[in-house]
Write a structure and sequence with these properties.
Layout (H helix, E strand, L loop, with lengths): L3 H8 L6 H16 L2 E11 L2 E11 L8 E9 L5 E11 L7
Antiparallel strand pairs: 1-2, 2-3, 3-4
């Protein structure tokens, strides 16, 4: 049986893959914010680990198109541990970006 300590030891010095970074960014952010997870809209490898953009539901409303969503930039170290996060913007769930 693998323990958390064994997993940490196996990952020492190794970079997690992109799908793992995406899952860990979403899970760690929503745990800290205590909000409903959304989607990971971007993931990029950086020299210091990973940078991801995670969309979350900040305020649940009825109808759900009026719920308040937020986009966060989450920085992970190479092993997928959360190093920092910042909110980039807030918007209504039904809002579409204009370009």
């Amino acid at each position: 049986m693998s323990t958390e300590k064994d997993t940490d030891k196996e990952n020492d010095g190794k970079r997690v893959d992109a799908p793992t970074a995406m899952r860990q960014a979403s899970a760690q952010l929503t745990e800290m914010l205590r909000c409903e997870p959304g989607i990971v809209s971007a993931v990029r490898a950086t020299d210091d680990g990973w940078s991801t953009d995670v969309e979350v539901v900040e305020l649940e409303r009825v109808p759900d198109t009026m719920s308040v969503m937020a986009s966060y930039r989450v920085q992970l170290d190479p092993q997928g541990r959360l190093m920092s996060y910042e909110r980039l913007r807030r918007y209504a769930r039904g809002q579409i970006d204009r370009r």
